[in-house]
Amino acid sequence: MKKDDDSTLNIWHGKPEDFSKSFNENYEKDLTKVISISHTGEGYNGVIEQNVSGVFISETYKDGKLNGLSYRTASNGSKVEAHYRNGMLNGEMKIYDSKGEIRSSIFYKNGQVLTGE
Questions:
Q1: How many domains does the chain have?
Q2: In angstroms, rounded to a whole number, what is the distance separating the alpha carbons of residues 26 and 30?
């Protein structure tokens, strides 16, 4: 647990096989992923960090839905960074190469890609 401005930020760090012992993963009709705490059924608030097949994953949740910054970093250093609001992509998604250079950037609003139109 980490203190942040007098509030507690939950940070769960573990292996994929331990994830299912701590959390339930369900999907709403629109396929929005919802994470709840196994023993209470409450939507998770905090960060979940895992290393899955050499990819470090960090996802931020509010009320069980992705909300805020989430990213995935491969062992070669390439990275995808995205922002979510209420379970949907919202804001800029950046894709970095192994040297840390931005290779592409896509903007979303409420799960939809924003175009220049």
A1: 1
A2: 11
